[in-house]
Amino acid sequence: MKNERLSIEEALDKNKRCYFQPKGASMKPLLTQGESTVVIEKLTRAAAKGDVILFRSGDLNILHRVIGFRDAVIITRGDNNFFNEYVPETDVLGFMTGFFRTRDSEFVSCEDRWYRRYCRILWIYRGYRKMRIILSKVKHKVIGER
Question: Is 99 within 8 Å of 111 (Cβ atoms)?
Answer without folding.
Answer: no
